[in-house]
């Protein structure tokens, strides 16, 4: 019997104008990416605040991926740059808490970059798989855990 | 406004280590504006504390609440029930807010979650600067609206000192020399003659000498 492989649960916040469209394009192009991601569409990654990432981890996510437009290509000019700073701030906070900051990552994807998006997801899933299940989830996360 | 910044998560855990149920109490006034202790920050810190406690196997329940103003009894009352059902309060108000809550609820430990820093303004997005030392005897009218007590590293009333470089302070070259700013401002408003007056030493007793300060307005007392 094969040992059970850990399948991480990753929340992916995808910008409507780029990464979400590229995920759509990946579907049209029949490009496969792991089913470990739960994509949440946001109007812009600049809409995301630290508490979104924190709540995702608190509720048991093994990893959080933030996918915004290429730098300089944000539909709202600099929303993705705001998101980058917030992601960095949250990484520092995760370290303070005692969690691996690698569980949170931001990538920059344009709407035409279906293959790079799939690669980014594959890489994120592998990174988190190596880190193992979220210590928060292991220690009995909140009741909403199963909804992820 | 009063500007503060949060303590680190390990420091906060150390502060509340003897309690199992804590209320993280935010304040909707100054510390909300300086992004240290408002509703949003309370949510983030509460999440962080819950996760950090779980990782250390500490039994900790965290409740969140943000009231309009922690330094005002009218608003503190709104936190009564939440304070009652928790073992301790981790206040995210300024130092005045923490003490106001502690004075009202004498049977509960009230801890400070923030380091209150100074009275200042939002200089640019994400940058706050001290502007007032609350010295008790304002001299801004003499200096074109630029405070030498707060902004000059040497608090000089008869400046500048001899060590400023161009328009930079010798203590920290990243900072502007307050006296250069004062000179420019007084020149702009045509009041350079104010600099010819030698200012006597300031009455420091109106500042923080001799304990806390009180202001009494008899016309408003009941």
Low-confidence stretches of chain A: 143-147
Net shape of chain A? flat
Largest interchain contact: A-B, 16 and 15 residues
End-to-end Cα distance of chain B: 29 Å
Number of structural domains of chain A: 1
Mean pLDDT value of chain A: 92
Number of strands of chain B: 7
Summarize the helix and strand pattern of chain A as letters: EHEHEHEHH
Instruction: Note the total helix count of chain B.
Output: 8
Query: What do we call the CATH topology of chain A?
Result: Rossmann fold
According to CATH, the homologous superfamily of chain A is: Lumazine/riboflavin synthase
Number of helices of chain A: 5
Helix content of chain A: 40-55%
Assigned CATH class of chain A: Alpha Beta
In which order are the strands of the major sheet of chain B placed? Answer: 3-2-4-5
What percentage of amino acids of chain A are in beta strands?
15-25%
**What does the overall shape of chain B look like?**
elongated
Strand content of chain B: 15-25%
Tell me the CATH topology of the largest domain in chain B.
Rossmann fold
Mean pLDDT of chain B: 94
Quickly list its features.
A: 148 residues; 5 helices; flat; disordered C terminus; B: 222 residues; alpha/beta; Rossmann fold; four-stranded parallel sheet; three-stranded antiparallel sheet; 7 strands; elongated
Write a concise synopsis of the structure shown.
With about 150 residues, chain A is an alpha/beta fold.
Structure description:
The complex is a heterodimer of chains A (148) and B (222). Chain A is an alpha/beta fold and 148 residues long. Chain A has five helices and four strands; from the N terminus they run E-H-E-H-E-H-E-H-H. Chain A has a four-stranded parallel sheet, with helices on both faces. Mean pLDDT of chain A is 92; it is low at 143-147. Chain B is built from eight helices and seven strands. Chain B has a four-stranded parallel sheet, sandwiched between helices. In chain B, helix 1 (9-15) crosses helix 3. Chain B starts with a strand and ends in a 34-residue tail after the last helix. The longest helix of chain B is centred in the first third of the chain and has 17 residues, at 39-55. Chain B has 222 residues and is an alpha/beta fold. Chain B has two domains: 2-118, 3-Layer(aba) Sandwich (Rossmann fold), CATH 3.40.50.2300; 137-206, no CATH class. Chains A and B meet through helix 2 and helix 3 of A and helix 3 of B.
């Amino acid at each position: 019997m094969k040992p059970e492989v850990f399948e991480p649960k990753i929340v992916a916040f995808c910008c409507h104008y780029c990464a979400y469209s590229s995920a759509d394009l990946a579907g049209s192009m029949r490009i496969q990416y792991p089913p470990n991601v739960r994509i949440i569409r946001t109007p812009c990654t600049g809409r995301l605040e630290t508490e979104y990432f924190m709540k995702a981890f608190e509720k048991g996510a093994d990893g959080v991926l933030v996918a915004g437009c290429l730098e300089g290509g944000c539909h709202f000019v600099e929303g993705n740059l705001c998101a980058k700073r917030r992601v960095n701030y949250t990484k520092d906070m995760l370290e303070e808490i005692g969690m691996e900051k690698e569980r949170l990552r931001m990538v920059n994807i344009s709407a035409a970059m279906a293959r790079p998006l799939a690669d980014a997801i594959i890489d994120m899933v592998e990174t988190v798989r190596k880190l193992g299940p979220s210590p928060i989830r292991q220690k009995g996360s909140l009741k909403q855990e199963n909804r992820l | 406004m009063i500007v503060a910044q949060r303590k680190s998560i390990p420091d906060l855990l150390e502060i509340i280590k003897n309690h199992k149920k804590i209320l993280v109490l935010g304040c909707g006034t100054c510390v909300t504006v300086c992004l240290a202790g408002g509703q949003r920050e309370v949510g983030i810190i509460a999440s962080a504390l819950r996760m950090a406690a779980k990782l250390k196997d500490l039994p900790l329940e965290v409740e969140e609440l943000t009231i309009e103003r922690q330094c005002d009894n009218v608003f503190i009352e709104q936190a009564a029930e939440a304070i009652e059902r928790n073992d301790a309060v981790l206040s995210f108000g300024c130092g005045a807010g923490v003490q106001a809550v502690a004075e009202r609820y004498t049977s509960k430990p009230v801890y400070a979650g923030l380091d209150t820093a100074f009275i200042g303004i939002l200089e640019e997005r994400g940058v706050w600067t001290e502007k007032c030392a609350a010295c008790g005897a304002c001299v801004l009218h003499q200096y074109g609206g630029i405070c030498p007590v707060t902004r000059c590293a040497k608090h000089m009333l008869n400046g500048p000192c001899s060590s400023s470089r161009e328009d930079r302070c010798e203590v920290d070259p990243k900072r502007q020399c307050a006296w250069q700013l004062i000179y420019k401002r007084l020149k702009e408003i045509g009041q350079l003659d104010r600099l010819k007056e030698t200012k006597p030493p300031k009455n420091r007793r109106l500042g923080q000498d001799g304990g806390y300060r009180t202001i009494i307005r008899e016309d408003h007392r009941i």
